[in-house]
């Protein structure tokens, strides 16, 4: 007989809310963590101290690896529908103002013909420009629809942890009261001044506040100056600009060709200027170079350029992701991409630990795999700032001088003299070198993980045959992302990446790999099986997979839920069950 139900006024009031995972922050890292965890069926609460999601564009470049993550999580098409497409992103322009002289361009973001081919060969997805104030609602709405619970105006105050979980104290900013949330794990995705990371004592390297910048969001119809050279970024050499020490102003397209964001520098030692509407409009006029176009200032804000990264991403049951553990300027467009990929790496591991499939030791691989990536992108983003200096050196624009002298230097490049010819050459080379910021395809896709969740196959690492920052090199080696190839299943054409993910392991093999299929089906862990070959469930009509897989038909690849190869064996073997079982025990932390 069931117990009687107490009237509402007699029920005890609990001051502790319980969940499996508590996420602090609803930005790209927190929102994507919530999306992945809710997709996997993990009870999740997201708290944010703010009253809404992002209301300014901020992060925007969305690279192929992130689009692959969003594809697996089922929101790729929603992003594509709202984003600026790749072909409108790529004429990064250097000029004296939008209405002024053009100094040169870089074909960017995969729009160089050769780079475009590499992008098409690398992934079933296309990079795009998806401003943060549009991206966050896509991620959060899908997460909430799948069961995540979201609380606005809820400020994280502190946490304590024990052997069984984490107790976080939060404050409801509307009511003013505090309460506790008890979770098995806590994810700190609370940005570049993360209180969760500080409370967890995560060790940091580098420094904050190395330079000052201002964002000015405005509306203006700049079609006449931009539509013929469509781009995400227009760099303006302007006296008085010090964007992160660069010496230029940046005009960034938010939505073609009417919504814009300007980045302008300030002396971080002296503090940010008074961000009045008049001040903001004066900067806009300077960089646009047309005083007659109607301009509407939407917002202005100051921020600092940082060069800091966490050496460890976790302490016990507390994990941090995104800007909480890697803080850097927006160069290369790596910020939100790395944040989303952090969350994707962590989410499947938490899911398998929470459902008892994996030992908590699996979670140690999060720091081992993502901290090197975080350090790399912090270094790359700041190096890209420094690599802009040669553009100004070519125009003698770094030495103290009057604006009139700078304009004279710029005009001198058009002279029919030997000195001017050398200047033109230096300028072309300096602008072309910015490919390391605007076409760093290898930085986007060449991650190679090394952790206990990866089983080496004993083969020597061949390294990279081309510059690993500029060029993606596919590999099926354990620790690499599964190579993309177009395959077919009946009348469907799909990517090899479409056969993996969805929160489970996948084993890929070919004709002769029957022992591997049986071994996969005999494991206690869910493993999808994919057999590729003539007459099989999947076929390789172009022969692309055969060229990329780096193993014979009867060999096997075990791919993790995040699309990274965890185990590779080159041939059929009667020991397939033992080998696969041993690999899984290692990956899942049971040995």
Inertia-based shape: globular
The N- to C-terminal Cα distance equals 46 Å
Helix/sheet category:
alpha+beta
How is the main sheet built?
Answer: 8 strands, mixed
**Percent helix range:** 25-40%
Low-confidence stretches: 1-13
Q: What is the average of the pLDDT values? A: 93
Number of E-state strands: 24
> What value does the Rg take, in angstroms?
26 Å
The proportion of residues in beta strands is 15-25%
Number of helices, counting only DSSP H or I runs of 4 residues or more: 18
Report what the structure shows:
31% of the residues lie in helices and 25% in strands. The chain has 591 residues and is an alpha+beta fold. The strands form five sheets. Strands 1, 2, 7, 8, 9, 10, 16 and 17 form an eight-stranded mixed beta sheet that branches. An eight-stranded mixed beta sheet has the order 5-4-12-13-14-11-15-18, sandwiched between helices. A hairpin with a 5-residue loop joins strand 23 (556-559) and strand 24 (565-569). The longest helix is centred in the middle third of the chain and has 23 residues, at 364-386. The relative contact order is 0.12. The model is unreliable at 1-13 (pLDDT under 50). Residues 456-481 are annotated as: Disordered. This is 2,4-dichlorophenol 6-monooxygenase.
């Amino acid at each position: 007989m069931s117990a009687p139900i107490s009237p509402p006024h007699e029920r005890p009031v609990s001051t502790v809310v319980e969940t499996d995972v508590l996420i602090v922050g609803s930005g790209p890292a927190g929102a994507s963590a919530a999306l992945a965890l809710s997709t996997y069926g993990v009870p999740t609460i997201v708290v944010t101290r703010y009253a809404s999601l992002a209301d300014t564009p901020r992060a925007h470049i969305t690279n192929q690896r992130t689009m692959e993550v969003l594809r697996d999580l089922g929101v790729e098409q929603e992003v594509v529908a709202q984003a600026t497409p790749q072909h409108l992103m790529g004429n990064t322009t250097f000029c004296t103002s939008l209405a002024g002289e053009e100094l040169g361009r870089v074909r960017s973001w995969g729009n160089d013909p050769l780079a475009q081919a590499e992008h098409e060969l690398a992934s079933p997805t296309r990079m795009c420009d998806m401003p943060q104030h549009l991206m966050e609602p896509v991620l959060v709405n899908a997460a909430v629809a799948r069961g995540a619970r979201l609380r606005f105006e809820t400020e994280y105050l502190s946490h304590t942890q024990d052997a069984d979980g984490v107790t976080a104290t939060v404050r409801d900013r509307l009511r003013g009261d505090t309460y506790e949330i008890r979770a098995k794990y806590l994810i700190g995705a609370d940005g570049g001044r993360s209180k969760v990371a500080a409370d967890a004592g995560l060790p940091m390297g580098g420094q904050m506040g190395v330079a000052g910048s201002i964002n000015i969001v405005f509306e203006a119809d700049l079609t006449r100056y931009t539509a013929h050279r469509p781009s995400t970024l227009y760099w303006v050499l302007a006296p008085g600009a010090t964007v992160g020490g660069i010496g230029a102003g940046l005009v960034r397209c938010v939505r073609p060709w009417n919504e814009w964001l300007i980045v302008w520098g300030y002396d971080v030692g002296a503090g940010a200027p008074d961000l009045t509407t008049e001040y903001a409009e004066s900067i806009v006029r300077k960089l646009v170079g047309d005083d007659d176009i109607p301009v509407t200032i939407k917002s202005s804000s100051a921020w600092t350029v940082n060069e800091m990264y966490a050496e460890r991403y976790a302490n016990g049951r507390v994990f941090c992701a995104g800007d909480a553990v890697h803080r850097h300027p927006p160069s290369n467009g790596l910020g939100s991409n790395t944040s989303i990929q952090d969350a994707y790496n962590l989410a499947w591991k938490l899911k398998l630990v929470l459902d008892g499939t994996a030992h908590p030791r699996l979670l140690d691989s999060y720091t081992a795999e993502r901290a090197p990536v975080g350090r790399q992108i912090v270094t790359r983003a700041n190096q890209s700032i420094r690599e802009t200096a040669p553009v100004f050196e070519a125009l003698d624009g770094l030495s103290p001088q009057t604006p009139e002298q700078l304009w004279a230097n710029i005009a001198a490049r058009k002279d029919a003299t030997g000195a001017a010819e050398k200047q033109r050459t230096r300028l072309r080379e300096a602008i072309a070198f910015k490919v390391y910021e605007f076409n760093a395809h290898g930085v986007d896709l060449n991650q190679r993980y090394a952790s206990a969740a990866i089983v080496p196959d004993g083969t020597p690492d061949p390294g990279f045959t081309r510059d690993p920052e500029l060029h993606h090199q596919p590999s099926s080696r354990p620790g690499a992302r599964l190579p993309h190839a177009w395959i077919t299943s009946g009348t469907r054409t799909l990517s090899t990446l479409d056969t993996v993910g969805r929160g489970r392991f996948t084993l890929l093999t070919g004709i002769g790999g029957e022992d591997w299929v049986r071994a996969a089906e005999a494991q206690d862990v869910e493993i999808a099986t994919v057999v590729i070959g003539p007459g099989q469930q999947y076929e390789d009509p172009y022969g692309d997979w055969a060229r990329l897989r780096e193993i014979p038909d009867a060999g096997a690849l075990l791919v993790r839920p995040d699309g990274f190869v965890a185990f590779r064996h080159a041939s059929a073997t009667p020991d397939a069950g033992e080998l696969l079982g041993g690999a899984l025990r290692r990956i899942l932390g049971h040995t």
